[in-house]
Amino acid sequence: MSVQAKVLSIQSHVVHGYVGNKSAVFPLQVLGFEVDAINTVQFSTHTGYKHLKGNVLQNEEMEELIEGLILNDVHHYTHFLTGYSRSPDSLRRIAEIIQKLRQKNPHLVYACDPVMGDNGQMYVPDEILPVYRDVLVPLADILTPNQFEAELITGISMKNQDGAVKVIKALHQRGVKTVALSSTELGDDQKMLGIASNNVTCYKIEIPKLDSNFTGTGDLFAALFLAWSHKTNNNLKLTLEKTIATLQIIVKDTYNTARETYPTGKIPAAARELRLIQNKNAIENPPITIQATEIKL
């Protein structure tokens, strides 16, 4: 990296576990980035637990924090990362923040993880969709939706690889330079596909499945993809391979460790928290074991 990369990350925060900023900040720091974090919520745990306590950052409070950064002239960022938000109005405020940050650094790279749902189900208010689609997505340099979110934004379903390419092209037409589908249902029982495109080249990668779900992987994917895009000088193939390699190591270690305690049946949420700290070395230098292959746009 020729310049010191500095990221402003506006995402959720949990006291226990690894989602949102807890899933993104540590890997970014390990990879050499300065990270300033604003927490849109502060919850005891993520919402997959039985009990949820905490509070939501009000829009006025977020604006006050941004104002403090600007007044102290410490708001020169190379990257801006956003994730989970439950308020359409807060997303509009984020669009305003992007404009302010780009006044300071016109070359700011905005990475948007449009967190809305998965597996055909929304877990944010419906009113958030048009704000992502019409306001934030056109501002994004990097977009990291899953299949469901990409279909929502474009209104196009992807039944196969050709459908995925149509969705990706539609996102490029909205102004996004790099699209990375963090996960799709286009694989089979053993693997799912990840796909990334910069509107010139496009790559797919096969991601092995495990018989368990993990929370925070999308947040981790977005942070890693941002980081490796910068560190590889936007080498799309290598960025996708490094991102998936890191995720695979962390998810497999989390799964294997949990299975030592829960050898059969469903693993409880507390045992499925991503083992980020234990895999610091893998985050720094992930060995690539799965190659990405080029597909035609």
Give the tags.
two-stranded antiparallel sheet; globular; 10-stranded mixed beta sheet; 297 residues; alpha/beta; UDP-N-acetylmuramoyl-L-alanine:D-glutamate ligase
Notes on the protein architecture:
This protein is of the alpha/beta class and 297 residues long. Helix 3 (88-104) links the parallel strand 4 (79-82) and strand 5. Helix 1 runs parallel beside helix 7 (217-231), helix 5 (147-154) packs across helix 6 and helix 7 runs antiparallel to helix 8. The strands form 2 sheets. The protein has a 10-stranded mixed β-sheet with strand order 3-2-1-4-5-8-9-10-11-12, sandwiched between helices. A two-stranded antiparallel sheet has the order 6-7. The chain has one domain (6-295): 3-Layer(aba) Sandwich (UDP-N-acetylmuramoyl-L-alanine:D-glutamate ligase). Helices cover 39% and strands 19% of the residues. It is globular.
Largest sheet: 10 strands, mixed
Report Rg.
18 Å
Uncertain runs are none
CATH-level-2 architecture: 3-Layer(aba) Sandwich
Strand runs, count: 12
The rough form would be described as: globular
**Structural class estimated from helices and strands:** alpha/beta
Record the strand order, biggest sheet: 3-2-1-4-5-8-9-10-11-12
Mean pLDDT: 95
Query: Looking at CATH, which topology would you report?
Result: UDP-N-acetylmuramoyl-L-alanine:D-glutamate ligase
- Percent range for β-strand residues: 15-25%
Q: How do the strands and helices of this protein lay out in sequence?
A:
Elements: E1 6-14, H1 21-30, E2 34-43, E3 54-56, H2 59-71, E4 79-82, H3 88-104, E5 109-112, E6 117-118, E7 121-122, H4 128-136, E8 142-143, H5 147-154, H6 161-173, E9 178-181, E10 191-197, E11 202-208, H7 217-231, H8 236-261, H9 280-284, E12 293-295
Parallel strand pairs: 1-2, 1-4, 4-5, 5-8, 8-9
Antiparallel strand pairs: 2-3, 6-7, 9-10, 10-11, 11-12
